[in-house]
Amino acid sequence: MKDIFLVHIILPEVFTPKFWDLVPKQTKRINDLLESRVILNYSLDMERKNVWVFMEAKDEKAVMDILSTFPIIKDVTVKIHELAFYDAAPIGLPELIMN
């Protein structure tokens, strides 16, 4: 059974050109993980200092294995929190209007 984890990623104070070059690869990786439902949510604050990721994984080691595939991982600080529960608004199809 998989659990839900909140991963808090603290971005570097200064984004170097090297770091900026990693952003498109990071975006691609995140999109792939969102599509496969490994990542449930991914958020960046307005100051571009913090990223929060809700992730489904077997255990903390599995979370670290996934995070190790992030192109930016060597340039950030990561804090992992296992959650007791994860609840979200239901996602549904738009209401059909029959004219």
Task: Tell me about the largest β-sheet.
Answer: 4 strands, antiparallel
How far do the termini sit from each other?
45 Å
CATH topology (fold) name? Alpha-Beta Plaits
Corresponding CATH architecture: 2-Layer Sandwich
Q: Number of helical runs?
A: 2
Question: Reading side by side through the largest sheet, how are the strands ordered?
Answer: 2-3-1-4
Shape: globular
Order of helices and strands: EHEEHE
Summary?
The chain is an alpha+beta fold and 99 residues long.
Please explain how this structure is put together.
The protein has 99 residues and is an alpha+beta fold. The protein has a single domain (3-82), classed as Alpha-Beta Plaits, CATH 3.30.70.1060. It has 2 helices and 4 strands. The protein has helices at 17-35, 60-67, and strands at 3-10, 39-44, 50-57, 77-82. It has a 4-stranded antiparallel sheet with strand order 2-3-1-4. The termini are far apart. The mean pLDDT is 93.
Q: Which short descriptors sum up this protein?
A:
alpha+beta; 2 helices
What is this structure's SSE topology?
Layout: E1 3-10, H1 17-35, E2 39-44, E3 50-57, H2 60-67, E4 77-82
Antiparallel strand pairs: 1-3, 1-4, 2-3
